[in-house]
Amino acid sequence: MTASFGSVALALAFATMVGAAIAALVGARRGDERWVLVSRRAVYGACGLLTVCVVLIESAFLRDDFSFHIVQQHSSIETPTFYKLAAMWSSQEGSLLLWAWVLSIASSLALYATRNRLREIVPYATAVMAGVASFFTGLMLFAGGVNPFSTLSPVPADGIGLNPLLQHPSMMVHPPMLYSGYVAFTIPFAFAIGALVTRRLDAAWIRATRRFALIAWAFLGLGLLLGARWSYTELGWGGYWAWDPVENAALMPWLIGTAFLHSIMVQEKRGMLKVWNACLIVATFSLALLGTFLVRSGVLQSIHAFGDSTVGPYILGLIGVVVLGSTALIVSRLDDLRSEKRIDSLASREAVFVINNLLLVALCATIFWGTFFPLISELFTGTKSSLAAPWFDRYTTPLAILLVLFTGIGPLLAWRRVSWAAARRVFVVPAVVATAVAAVLALLTDAGHEPWALALFFCATFALVGLAQEFWRGASARRTLSGGSMPAALVAIVSRNRRRYGGYIVHAGVAVLLIGVAASSSFQTKRDVVLRPGQSAVVDGRKVTYVRPTAHVDKLAFTAGAVLRVQHGGGEFTERPTRRFYRPTGVQGGGVSNYFAGESDSEIGLRAGAGSDFWSAAQPDITGLQRHARAADLELERCLRGGPGVPPQCRVVGAMMRAALVNPSLRPVAQAKIEALQLATAKRIAAGYVAEASPVTFRVIVDPLVTWMWVGGLIALAGAVIGLWPARRAPGGDPELEALKEAKYREIRDAELDHAAGKLSDEDFALLDAELRGEAIEILDGPSR
Amino acid sequence: MDPARKRKIRLVVALGVAVFLAAALVYTSFSASSEAKEPSQLIGAAPGTSYDLTGKVVVGSVRRDGDSMRFRVVDRDGHGQSLPVTYSGTVPDPFRGGREIVLTGEVDHGVFVGERDTLVTKCPSKYTTSSNDS
Description:
A: alpha+beta; four-stranded antiparallel sheet; B: CATH 2.40.50.140; five-stranded mixed β-barrel; elongated
């Protein structure tokens, strides 16, 4: 019943989205505002309908409605509620629905935000957004096998359940974050297409969608970070990045999105790089689609194998249309995309932005080549060959180091031009401190043996000191102007220049993150040791003792664990890594040995610290446990058959079972009794495991500074939020003109700050200020725009 | 030097560097890659060449022996002859009989010897019961 209601809602959402796209195009062709209004309202309406679909699916999960195919396949009665909510996007149809739903929300927000702006561009942008949304909604309806509302008859009693490996808090958040990131890049893409079609190629479309691009970037970044965290804590492997195709697929749009966020500033402020920006946003969106495709297609060998899917070819088709269509459009508009100005000097922020853009694109191109190499080599040599992590590391390490260097250099330079004398003034302190730090590290630590890591520490220190200096000088300048304490001045400059200082905070976060990556990948100690209780091993100066085994059994899983004592210097702490063996759900019978026939996962022991993490995972030898379980099953069977000398509770259950064969209504009771008997047996085996004290393989990792990776990621996220935070807007007036005025006003303020902070010499500032004020007067005077 | 000429030189230099790097990338990728092979293609292969073995772990074939491990792998479609494998190092959580794996290593006397810590196990997107495994 609810399923057919959902199917209708989904079909209506599709029809409404198609209608919105058509209405928008008609409105644009005829220049008729009423059609445009209809299209906007249709998008809102479709968003409402898709919300209904999502609510229906989620409620089916919560109600354990196994008449829904999707619920039966990805949930079970015993799945914890938290994961029932998240189970939707572990399925293909669910993630398509999530795509369409998030896109409809983002489109509605974008259309609401621009309801009184960009009258010419919006209809085409609406058509693009509604077109993409219709595509994904249509896939669910017409591609076959991916309709989230398909039902099962007869209704099964229980579902298969959600893979325990996916039952991790970050798995609840990781996929929706990635999808939101992919999806939100549709908005700037759609407006870019609108701007190209209408030839309105000033920075208006960028101002209107910059926030969406930044949100997409932040979501994608957070998704990547959560995925890394999941890998670090859940997979019993201890790494956080493996250059796996699906990881790369999410990293590539993030890199190009980063380039886009920088180069649009150049277009906003200087009217340059228009072709480049158009290409970047097309590339970002295509890569986001490619990410969706790779996750779901299985063309490349990946640890993220979600089965060969039916939707792959359609998504590939969409990518083809997007790439070819956009390229043709950009080529036909080349005349309108000419830069309004040229770069004045290599010593300017825009020149550094161009360099960072090239580095980011090179990084992405390298990763793209490596990711698709199996297909490329098959094309040329006939065999599928793949590239492993060392190949990726060889190219990405130097590029990443250069990028960190430029995250430090960029903020130190002013827009337009900087005299070399002024540049020297701001570069001295960071360069000296970074050199000193690198020298100390090289002399006193192992860093001297790892030139790449040392280079990264140098560049990251340079960036961090340079950024700190920016904050310091900005706040000092503020104090000389209006007094107050240093912290108050810091808060004031950040809150008044959110984009600028938010961006700096992101840079600092990235530098900190890469310090964590470099340290943990170059100076990690990893050991696999086999220990019996009481034995110990020394890993990187820490004495690790296997104190005693632990075991725990419940209806769902058999957990074998260990208590480890770690002594380091004077300190001592305990870790309890465990390994959990899950019984497959939805399977009848199988006995106690079933505990060892299903999935297993590691609960790692982790002692995180500012200096280093102590990470441990236990891998008990289960052959002994399996043997005991098989013996116990045979024993139980014999016991239930009855005969002389069997324990009385066995005889009772056996009798009940035989009665249940005749009378089915007794079956649940007999089943419960048997389960209880099996649980008791498993508990006996667990006690035996603890008493037996068999050897366990431990993987122990001492990971220096890895904590700073997560901290850096969070700092960068905080910076993005600050940069996103909306400023108070003066009411009334033409919003487009207001935005233009605000942008110019911000440029003047930036120049003043740069001058006060010593980045611009007096002459440079006088010239620049006069230029900017002239441009500002033009804006105020001219209805010419 | 006039600015137009300067820009042209800059562009040529930048393009030259890009082409050089791209060539290095292409060259090294062909020499650094290892071929992906299924077990049936590796039976009787000579030692000395590194391959990426891809296939399915035979259910019930996994034997652990301290730090190292022995198991057999068949083609992904489940047909053909299986190849014995020895491996030591990290074992990802999802590893077990019936799972698809990728492992880098060499064939030595009919046994595939995996390189340390190169075992990749595909993440299942949902439960598969042991009865579906074979």
